[in-house]
Amino acid sequence: MLDLSSQPHPDPIQVRINCAIVTVSDTRTPDTDSSGALIQQLLQSAGHTVGKYRIIPDEPTQICAELDSTISMVPTIQAIVFNGGTGISARDTTYDAIANVLTKTLPGFGEIFRCLSYQDIGSRAIASRAIAGTYQHLLVFSLPGSRGAVQLGMEKLILPELIHLVTQLT
Question: What is the pTM of this model?
């Protein structure tokens, strides 16, 4: 379990959050998706569940459809973690698709992610378009697809705040 006692306002109880994981990639398969596997491992190690896992191509319509289908098909999902498609190449459309549909954004997520990433990879962190916010009743995170970025985002930002943010949504 994650130790939240160092938080300024620790959550009073451990709550199990039901999450979805979506890897956005034109090339990964379940056998080669080490970032998606790492997200699953970290969520489960922290006491959360994974109610849905998918790999989808980097197509804006499919990214938005995945948000809608998660809400309608698995209404018990409380948070969704996307990974991949956050760079600036022509095929990186995850950020744009998600940013255009979020109900509310959490600008601090991307800002802090890039700050922490800068400590690891230097100025290349400016190319990261990590984003988080809400979509209807769903908490949405979008991370770069590299294992290092996933580990950083999960351990330093998502896991320490997941319960708090989902609790605020409900």
Answer: 0.92
